[in-house]
């Protein structure tokens, strides 16, 4: 019987992570068909299907989800 693989998270190279300001997003794509996104400050994780993630990325790259103050 094979166990469920654990997510292996990585942080974006654009992240300016330091111990005083943990405002990074971490992504894991190592589990087939699933993508997990984790908040580095809280550890909260959200999971997506690979299709949902592929649909999300183009909009994110174009700034579609940017929040302005």
Automatic annotation (TrEMBL):
The lineage of its organism: Bacteria, Bacillati, Actinomycetota, Actinomycetes, Kitasatosporales. InterPro entries: DUF397 (IPR007278). Residues 9-61 form the DUF397 domain. It comes from Streptomyces noursei. This is DUF397 domain-containing protein. Pfam families: DUF397 (PF04149). It comes from the Bacteria.
